[in-house]
Automatic annotation (TrEMBL):
InterPro entries: GcvP, GDC-P_C, GDC-P_N, GDC_P, PyrdxlP-dep_Trfase, PyrdxlP-dep_Trfase_major, PyrdxlP-dep_Trfase_small. The glycine cleavage system catalyzes the degradation of glycine. The modification N6-(pyridoxal phosphate)lysine is found at K759. One of its GO terms (cellular component) is glycine cleavage complex. Residues 831-952 form the Glycine dehydrogenase C-terminal domain. The keyword Oxidoreductase applies. GO terms for biological process: glycine decarboxylation via glycine cleavage system. It is found in: Mitochondrion. It comes from Rhizopogon vesiculosus. This is Glycine cleavage system P protein. Belongs to the GcvP family. Its cofactor is pyridoxal 5'-phosphate. SUPFAM superfamilies: PLP-dependent transferases.
Length: 1014
């Protein structure tokens, strides 16, 4: 067929579809708009041959008619004129920079085909590499109903406990599981990974010595990635890290005198299980802390460190049902003794009671958080690994203590069989005297070198640990069955040129293969919750029972300012749980992970295009970890130029608490910079401070648009001031959702920025994590990007690792990759435009009801808005919390409360919310404003009213008339808007008493006796 003949029908189709589109785009009244939402015609394709499953139309809530309507309400006749009034012209970039030409768009179907194609480029080897990572078996009931369930993965950190009791209970299960298995007094609700958990422990030991003792000793059989991360962290605090034989540490008097703590691994990287009880006593005699990195499954059989006196116990919980995922995300655990509990980093869930006296969970001891402590904080943990901790907890609930012990015994038994088998061939097992699941095997008897052994294993699709020239490592796990064991044995037989293996003649293991005195004698997980949900039906119901208590994006918008809670599309989540991506060990040889590497490279390239920077590292596991990594990169840059003395970090008072905390951790001195009453940075103050510290200025940290929700005109001037004084500019990219396609951190004047992929790039927040905080940097900083001890990453002059895994939480990078690829450049830009429009429309609707704290000279906000509630406190004693709790009665998650200003709410709708949802939220806010008015004018008493008594759970609704005792009806309390009749989300408890919970700190599940008395 000739070319013209094919083109003609295509053109006819295009013209027809363009006519269809024009007729659909006529102006429609507001009410009609709302009833038409959701119709396929509302978002027509450009022509009839284009894919219909275009992601932008699904991701961006408002359609063309709705954006047209919102623009007209704001007085603009086009999106461009609105943007011109919102974003300073001097920082705008050309449209072509982020367009479908620079980032082409794939349909949802095309994305899945592409992901499949790349997934198949990851070789499906069975890895026995160990080193802290295993092939976890995810129970299908947990995979489908927790990991793949948006009711579990879309909620935010449980800052609003009345609508988060489900995951709070599950996190308490996690804490209880850790306390019980480690035999420690208290555990937190997860940290980012084992290596950073060890770094937190090291700093705790240092702080515990009142920062007087500066030596931290690490046994050389600790995981190498942990040692690398410790080196990075030690630098910032001036801690002297000594790596050697734990047995020798106390022999050196000078070292002993300055010793803050010791870290040992139990079982260690080579598989040895060592009795550290005497050693612990000696370390304590030297006035230092004992920190133990350990393995939860091993602890079902081994004496727990708490029983031999450890002070801090930590590790990775991922072998409890979380896929390896090329390194994560995984929930690290962290447990301490009673005396250290108030210094413990990370989130802690505690039991308290609500105003009616019912037990209820909430975040405990929040004053430890960096939001409050800022530069006095010694940890910057904000987002951690809630979803993964919940998965691990559910795994323990499902298997129970007996099930866990059975799994551990099987793993240990198979490891013993393997040992007998390789010894029978003449190989030497280096740790024959003690092991749980790991053997270190000297293969020199039969192999010229270890490579021969690796090659034999590779023939059978097996990866072993590379130890040294003569030695390999093998770690078994729950996934290993008889066939796997035979295959593993066959690999050794091939290397030994020996005929086929079999089990005949192998001795049956009778005793544990570790010292008798280390056999666990104590019970664990006796609590009721770990002993009743073992059938799949019961487990399913427990998972859904908890999920029903939590408000997530599956219910309503979560307009948390600075958190960007947008659509986490199912299409971008689907590849995540494919085995092609889930089953990959982080230290698998590079040639086996071509698919992953390709995706990571594409993501890094796209992030560089979006930020305007030169290079990217995806290693940091959270925004705060990104800050820390970026600041270390800057320090290394100054150092390399002979300016290592530069250690002053300027930070505006409005900055997020993680900024000053990260700066201190990187060894910087924080100098605060003022902001003006209009929310803008005080450039005079910045200039004065930059000049005052000119000789020592290292960096200025700025969030843009600012945490006050405006694009400041002066950002480029601010960056110039810093550069003129020899400093670098760190741009906190938490608000990047306001920038993509319109401006970028490089154009604003930054040198480095972190991005919260769990905000702008649609990784779900998981109820408090996971997150990914990659850093993008200008060319001059690229050489310093973080390295990794086992896999080549980073630049030519790289800093040590900042995370345990080379590419951090690699598996969830797929989500952001898919998000960017499906939106393409045009969709990314459109998302930003609509995010700005939604926020401004919201500001417009709330105007006259609430005071908008900051706007630009054209009256515009950025992608979020700050409303000030101070007047209500003055008039009637109504606090931000009262408004927030009342919003729960309307079925909404409250916005960010009391940050960055204590009397304010920071509201961020994002582009994914439709006009209808935004209107619903504004209607709720306006109704609450009326209720507040009744309190101000005395129609309702100041101490007994709809706001002060909020939220109103169902249990209150069935109170007797006598108990009700309120000057308003039940209907006013529970159904203040008509749409609540159809769409009601019930908080499960009344307002929770925080102070009571902190004074009476209880952080584990009720015991069997307590459960019986409830
Ligand atoms: C402005 C800003 N910076 C940094 C962070 C820290 O990010 P993460 O919670 O991922 O550590 C946040 C988190 O809310 C933030 O809003």
């Amino acid at each position: 067929m000739n070319k013209a003949a094919t083109i003609r029908p295509l053109m006819a189709l295009r013209i027809a579809s363009s006519r269809l589109r024009q007729s659909a785009a006529r102006s429609i009244a507001h009410s009609t708009l709302l009833t038409r939402r959701g119709l396929a015609t509302a978002k027509s394709p450009i022509n009839l041959i284009d894919s219909l499953d275009t992601f932008t139309d699904r991701h961006v809530g408002p359609d063309d008619n709705e954006t047209g309507f919102m623009l007209s309400k704001l007085g603009f006749d086009s999106m461009e004129s609105f943007l011109a009034a919102t974003v300073p012209p001097q920082i705008r970039i050309a449209d072509s920079m982020i367009s479908n030409a620079s980032i082409p768009a794939l349909s949802e179907t095309e994305l899945h085909l592409r992901a499949k194609e790349l997934g198949q480029k990851n070789a499906q080897f069975k890895s026995y590499i160990g080193m802290g990572y295993h092939n976890a078996v995810v129970p299908p009931v947990i995979l489908r109903n927790v990991m793949e369930n948006p009711a579990w993965y879309t909620p935010y950190t449980p800052y609003q406990p009345e609508i988060a009791q489900g995951r709070l209970e599950s996190l308490v299960n996690f804490q209880t599981m850790i306390m019980s298995l480690t035999s420690m007094d208290i555990a937190n609700a997860s940290l980012l990974d084992e290596a950073t958990a060890a770094a937190e422990a090291m700093v705790m030991a240092y702080v515990q010595s009142n920062q007087k003792k500066k030596t931290f000793f690490v046994d050389k059989a600790v995981l190498p990635q942990t040692i690398s991360v410790l080196k990075t962290r030690a630098k910032g605090f001036g801690i002297q890290l000594v790596i050697g034989n734990a047995a020798d540490v106390l022999k050196h008097d000078a070292l002993r005198a300055d010793l803050a703590g010791v870290l040992v691994q139990y079982p260690d990287v080579n598989g040895f299980v060592t009795d550290y009880s005497d050693f612990t006593k000696q370390v304590h005699d030297a006035g230092a802390l004992v920190v133990v990195a350990t393995d939860l499954l091993a602890l079902t059989l081994l004496q727990p460190p708490g029983e031999w006196g450890a002070d801090i116990v930590l590790g990775n919980s991922a072998r409890f049902g979380v896929p390896a995922g090329y390194g994560g995300p995984h929930g690290a655990f962290f447990a301490v003794t009673e005396k250290l509990k108030r210094k413990m980093p990370g989130r802690l869930i505690g039991r308290s009671k609500d105003v009616t006296g019912n037990p209820a969970y909430r975040l405990a001891l929040q004053t430890r958080e960096q939001h409050i402590r800022r530069e006095k904080a010694t940890s910057n943990i904000c987002t951690s690994q809630a979803l993964l901790a919940n998965m691990a907890a559910m795994y323990a609930v499902y298997h129970g203590p007996a099930g866990l012990e059975r799994i551990a015994k099987k793993v240990h038994f198979l490891t013993q069989i393997l040992k007998f088998s390789v010894e029978r061939l003449g190989f030497r097992v280096v740790n024959a005297s003690s092991y749980f699941d790991t053997l270190t095997i000297d293969v020199s008897k039969h192999c010229a070198n270890a490579e021969v052994m690796h090659a034999a294993a590779a023939l059978l699709g097996i990866n072993l640990r590379r130890v040294d020239h003569n030695t390999v490592g093998v770690t078994l796990d729950e996934s290993v069955g008889q066939a796997d064991l035979l295959s593993l044995m066959r690999a050794f037989h091939i290397a030994a040129s020996h005929p086929e293996p079999d089990f005949t003649g192998l001795p049956a293991p009778k005793e544990p293969a570790f010292p008798q005195q280390l056999v666990r004698e104590s019970n664990f997980l006796q609590h009721s919750v770990f002993n009743k949900h073992h059938s799949e039906t019961e487990m399913l119901r427990y998972i859904f029972h908890l999920a029903s208590k939590d408000l997530g994006l599956v219910h309503a918008m979560i307009p948390l300012g600075s958190c960007t809670m947008k659509l986490n599309s199912t299409s971008s989540m689907i590849p995540l749980t494919w085995p092609e991506f889930g089953g990959i060990h982080p230290f698998a040889p590079t040639e086996q992970v071509e698919g992953y590497r390709h995706i990571i490279k594409e993501l890094e390239d796209d992030l560089c295009k979006i930020t305007g920077f030169h290079a990217c590292s995806v290693q940091p596991n959270s925004g705060a970890a990104g800050e820390y990594a970026g600041l270390n990169v800057i320090r290394a840059y100054h150092d390399a130029r002979g300016e290592g003395h530069r250690d002053v970090c300027l930070i505006p008072l409005s900055a997020h608490g993680t900024n000053p905390a990260s700066a201190v951790m990187a060894g910087l001195k924080v100098v605060p910079v003022k902001t003006h009453a209009d929310g803008n940075l005080d450039l005079e103050d910045l200039k004065a401070k930059a000049e005052k510290h000119k000789g020592n200025l290292a960096v200025f940290m700025i969030t843009y648009p600012s945490t006050f929700g405006v694009f400041e005109d002066g950002v480029t001037d601010a960056c110039k001031i810093i550069h003129d004084c020899g400093g670098q500019v760190y741009l906190d990219g938490a608000n990047l959702n306001a920038q993509v396609g319109l401006t970028n951190p490089a154009v604003c004047g930054g040198d480095v920025c972190h991005l919260n992929l769990h905000k702008t790039f649609a990784i779900p927040h998981g109820g408090g994590g996971p997150g990914v905080g990659p850093i993008c940097v200008a060319k001059h900083l690229a050489p310093f990007l973080p390295s990794h001890p086992l896999v080549k990453t980073g630049g030519s002059d790289a800093i040590e690792a900042v995370s345990a895994a080379p590419f951090g939480s690699a598996s969830i990078l797929l989500i952001s990759w898919a998000y960017i690829k499906m939106l393409g450049g045009n969709g990314l830009s459109e998302s930003t435009n609509v995010a700005l429009l939604n926020a401004n429309y919201m500001a417009h609707r709330l105007a006259g009801h609430y005071s908008l704290r900051f706007k630009n000279k054209n009256g515009r906000v950025a992608h979020e808005l700050l409303i000030d509630l101070a007047e209500f406190d003055k008039a009637a004693g109504l606090k931000v919390t009262d408004f927030a709790k009342r919003l729960q009665d309307f079925g909404f998650h409250p916005p960010t409360c009391s940050w960055p200003i204590s009397t304010c709410m920071l509201i961020e709708p994002t582009e994914s919310e439709t006009l209808e949802e935004i209107d619903r939220f504004c209607d709720a806010m306006i109704q609450i404003r009326k209720e507040a008015e009744d309190i101000i004018t005395g129609k309702q008493p100041k101490d007994n009213n709809l706001l002060k008594n909020a939220p109103h759970p169902l249990s209150l609704m069935i109170a007797s008339d006598k108990e009700w005792n309120r000057p308003y009806t039940r209907e006013e309390a529970a159904y203040p808007m008509p749409w609540l009749r159809e769409k009601k989300f019930w908080p499960t408890v009344s307002r929770i008493d925080d102070a009571y919970g902190d004074l009476n700190l209880i952080c584990d599940c009720p015991s069997v006796e307590e459960t019986a008395s409830l």
